Amino acid sequence: MKRTAAIVLVLGMLTGCQMGHTATSQKAMNLGKPIVFFNITTNPMVDAHPVTMALQLANHALDDDRHVVLFFNVKSVGVPTKQLPLTVRNAEARPVRDLLADAIANGADVHVCPMCLKAMGVNEGDLVDGAHVTSRDALFSTIGPNTVVFTY
Fold it and tell me: How far does Cα 142 stand from its chain's mean position?
């Protein structure tokens, strides 16, 4: 618990954000669901392994009835797009696109960094259904005291 609080505090300090419990985290806390936040930064066209691992773990967390937040940023913003080829996969794993579709279908909350979209030349209209361009308030509202963060 102390480590999670420290991560949240550091994230808040780095972004200048004041932490508060708003809609998403409050809803998850009211339901007693642990929140699992996946910070995904890797471009799967370069290395599909980390993105595959993140999405597989996210789907396991959803299977365990946890609230899952996927945050695509830095080089990963091409993942939640309609253009991601089915050939993007790691070894014998299912395609990244299919793993993401499963997570969305099972209730994952998918956030995409607006600045990273611009930097990578991806348009908002390219995003798959269920993924949305986020804001600081929307993203940080997903983080609560029972949040675990994984970074890939």
Answer: 10
Q: Is the dihedral of CA 51, 52, 53, 59 positive or negative?
A: positive
In 52-139, which ranges are E strands?
Answer: 67-72, 109-112, 131-133
Domains, the chain, in order of start with CATH, read: 2-151 (3.40.1260.10)
d(CA 146, CA 35): 6
Q: Tens of pLDDT along 58-112?
A: 999 999 999 999 999 999 999 999 999 999 999 999 999 999 999 999 999 999 9
Measure the CA–CA gap between 17 and 38, rounded to whole angstroms.
19
Q: What is the pLDDT of residues 56-68, one digit of tens each?
A: 999 999 999 999 9
User: Crossing angle, helix 96-105 and helix 48-63, to 10 degrees?
Assistant: 20
| CA atoms 34, 82, 123, 91: torsion sign | positive
Q: Is the pTM of this model over 0.70?
A: yes
Q: How far apart are CA 152 and CA 145, in angstroms?
A: 21
Task: Let me know if 57 is exposed, middle or buried by CB neighbors in 10 A (0-12, 13-18, 19+).
Answer: middle
Q: pLDDT tens digits for 130-140? A: 999 999 999 99
Whose tokens are 């993105």? That residue is 51
